[in-house]
Amino acid sequence: MTRLTGIKACVFDAYGTLFDFGSAVARCADIPDTKRAALTVLWRDKQIQYTLLRSMQDRYADFEQVTGEALDFALDSTGLTDGGYRQTLLDLYRTVSAYPEVPQMLATLRSQGLVTAILSNGTPSMLDAAIRHAHIGPSLDHVFSVESIGIFKPSARVYQFAVDQLGIAREAICFVSSNGWDAYGAAAFGFQVAWCNRAGQPAERLPGQPTVMLKSLEVLPGLLADR
User: Which of 9, 83, 126, 195 reaches 20 to 30 Å from 217, CA-CA?
Assistant: First the structure.
């Protein structure tokens, strides 16, 4: 597998990369089994779509609001608006589960002397809740939210914000995301990108090219060990 060279910092997307966004629906026991998959997919797809559309329209709203509006659409689409699920699911989303390999992977990167950070569409309060729930705070040096600049990824302004905050050249940053649109956007910006393609999706037809593609974050430290 291709190695990543000259890396000084690893910057991670949060939802879908470090945190399993599907765990909110999975932990809501009252949702009918026949609706779980559709609700999870619709909620996530509409959440991403709304961030992109709001950025195009210059009508930023924070990620908590966008997540709630996407959930409203998903509940309506799946006929679950009368079940009283909304607040329960939003509460569960604040404590989404980390993927199993994440805590050890972050700790290993820190032991290798790498700077670790999150760069996320999430609000600071959402990210803080998820990080505390996953007990990964001690392994993170920085947590950056787009709320500081008022536009969502994959705007180049977001990636530049991380560069400015870290004071590290973009080519010395490994950006890690499980979202293809984010991985390709970050690669087009100039990061070295590890696309954690958990779902085995085909290549995106977008500018940029991820440096490596992974199935799990477990192998990431091994690609950086001899940087």
Answer: 126
